[in-house]
Please model this.
Amino acid sequence: MEQFLDAFYKTFIYEDRYLYFLEGLKYTLIIALFSCILGLIFGILTSVIRDYHKQTNKLAILSKICDIYVYIIRGTPTLLQLMILYYVVFKTSTISPIIVGILTFGINSGAYTSEIFRAGFDGIDKGQREACKTLGLNYLKTMKHVIFPQALTKIFPALGNEIITLVKETSIAGYVGIVELIKASDIISSRTYDYFFPLIVSALVYLLLTYLLSKIMKLMERKLNHAI
Amino acid sequence: MLFKIKSLSKKFGKTYVLKNINLEIENDEKIVIIGPSGSGKSTFLRCLSTLEETTSGEIFFQDIKLNSKNTKKIQGKIGMVFQNFQLFDNLTVLENITLAPVLNKIMSKEEAYKQARIYLKQIHLDKKENEYPNDLSGGQKQRVAIIRTLMMNPEVILFDEPTSALDPEMINEVLALIMEVSKKNITMIVVTHELNFAYDFATRVLFMDKGRIVEDGDKEQIFHHPKTDRLQQFLDNIK
Model:
């Protein structure tokens, strides 16, 4: 018992080490939040461009570029993408690793998100687009007012999953020197030679985060469904 | 002249669904198209509404050739009512009806709401304006869909089997509305299997079979004095 308390003391209290966790949590949250926003923007743009091409045969080159983007991102490990961005693309720049992290996870999530949206758009009865066409609505108006809102309700659970995955995936940001939650716990373990508390606490924090997220998504889902 | 159709053919894969159709349709005609399943009735309507591209031949609408370049010119002028209603589930009844005229700047939002409420009152659905399509019965949905099309002030409305997806007891309320609309100065083309309705409604009847227009005449001729055995057989079969 005494050993247990000692480990607890060394992990959190001594030298105010809990601050490391808080700092780590802060970066985890920052990266997760901004890369999620970026991922949604990339995902929606990519899926709409590909859908526009599918419906109208226009924007062929741009659509092909989107295809390649999705193919490459889905075909390579996220860690590799992070390292390439950090050690190759931004090697000589003084850009903050946090930004590199946000960019990596945003670009990565965008590819997956775009596939989720694509499935959503494809899942809408094509009669809905035909009705819009006979009412004289162009592609963008049809997408904005009819297809997108309906697709969003259908894909919401999948989108929630993607966001939760993204939050957990930010844990590899430590590889490029970002002190996020896991890296923070790693630093403390290396000082105390105790792994139990740092790792368990990290796990609990992630669980709490994803629990809250899924609650929020559920609430939003119910709101969306209520409208329909 | 409203429509002029020259040598229209349409094929899906290797199968011709429409074969060399030539037809002229005047303003204000009330046309019913009858014929067996797979005779090309719906495809014909879909070609007129530009939802399907033609394989060969030409369709002129008020002297405008229908093709992908001219879609803006005919915007909203060729209305269509679908078998499965195709109301927008994410929008309320009122929003469904006013979406297109407002977005296409045919009316202001206030004008559109005012007009929509007049129509909704006429079809006794004024209390449902804030409900979503999923709260309506099939007959109510189809009547809202017809109003939605009317709101665009179309020159012609195409009805693709408007009552086929309905429970029997809801068919009449929809047919009654179509009859009501027919008093307006709008050309209407209806694909239907409701022969009693067709007889009351039509000024002209087309009988299609295997992708061709086999007979074209007034209702007396088509229903009482068919010229071809095929039409006689069709009428005998569904009576």
In short: The first strand of chain B starts at residue 3 and ends at 12. Strands of chain B lie at 3-12, 15-25, 30-34, 56-61, 64-65, 78-81, 156-160, 187-191, 204-209, 212-217.
